[in-house]
Amino acid sequence: MIPILNVENLTLAYGDKEVITGLNFQVNQGDFLVVVGENGVGKTTMVRALLGQLKPRQGQIKMPSSVKIGYVPQFRNLDSEYPLSIRDFVALNLPTSRLPWLSRDERQKIDQIVAATDLTRIAERPLGMASGGEKQRAYLAQALVADPQLLILDESTASLDNEMKYELLDLVEDFRSKGRAVLFVTHDWDLAHHYGTRYLHLAAGRATSGPISELSAIEEEE
Ligand SMILES: Nc1ncnc2c1ncn2[C@@H]1O[C@H](COP(=O)(O)OP(=O)(O)OP(=O)(O)O)[C@@H](O)[C@H]1O
Ligand SMILES: [Mg+2]
Q1: Taking the model in full, what pTM does it have?
Q2: In the β-sheet with 3-14, what is the strand arrangement from edge to edge?
Q3: What average pLDDT does this structure show over 89-108?
């Protein structure tokens, strides 16, 4: 198993308020880790720490230096005036993006990812005009264009209808199956069971993790 992420004895706090205490878990290549837990338990806080936006109070987040993280945020309603085309929005996250002077390789890569996320037909339209599902696919495409080894989704499907959720996660699953890893924060048990290979359950005072087959027991507890 090739490790992507190793979290050791991680404690996270805002001021005096400890949100996560002594958390341990691992993500390996090929894992689809679903992160579950009640509202306010610290899932987004943990994601912020993994992205380097919040300094641990204690403990460590270990990642090989070659590992890049892609991030798909929870759906935010972009202004309908948002001017960039979907294509340009995706291109913004190229490692050396110089809009509009992209190289031929870069253009090809954008084409390929835009096609894989089923956005070709509307790629020249302003992102602000896209539907919720299309915006989420554009965020996913933008994250994927930087070739991350680990993709983090924080409730990225929450605002989508059922069919769209599965469509988006099928794309994520396709990415995972090519030797990457996924960390998916969700309140949706059906999605967790359908796509997860492992789970991490955050709960006040104690966290557990294990193979997805053990998730049902957690679900009954909650
Ligand atoms: N910037 C902040 N400053 C102080 N407290 C915060 C801050 N951000 C979050 N919190 C608090 O930390 C706790 C954990 O919040 P967090 O957003 O990580 O929960 P969550 O598990 O993602 O919840 P949800 O399922 O509702 O998204 C909450 O009590 C929240 O109020
Ligand atoms: Mg959250």
Answers
A1: 0.93
A2: 17-28, 3-14, 58-62
A3: 84
Interval 14-52: pLDDT, tens? 999 999 999 999 999 999 999 999 999 999 999 999 999
Eight-state DSSP code of residue 127: G
- The residue whose CA has the least distance to atom 1 of ligand 1 is 14
| Ligand 1 atom closest to 42 (CA) | 18
User: Pick from 137, 9, 1: which is nearest to 62 by CA?
Assistant: 9
How far apart CA 197 and CA 18 sit, in angstroms, is: 29
Please give the distance, rounded to the nearest whole angstrom, from the Cα atom of residue 81 to the centre of ligand 2. Answer: 27
53 phi, psi to nearest 5 deg = -95, -10
Mutating to test ligand 1, I would choose from 18, 43, 154, 155 the residue with most ligand atoms within 8 A of its C-beta, which is 43
Residue 143 φ then ψ, to 5°: -65, -40
Three-class SS of 145-194: CCCCCEEEEECCCCCCCHHHHHHHHHHHHHHHCCCCEEEEECCCHHHHHH
CATH topology of domain 1-67+149-222: Rossmann fold (3.40.50)
pLDDT tens figures, 42-77? 999 999 999 999 999 999 999 999 899 999 987 666
Distance 154 CA to ligand 2 centre (A): 7
* Atom 30 of ligand 1, residue of closest alpha carbon: 40
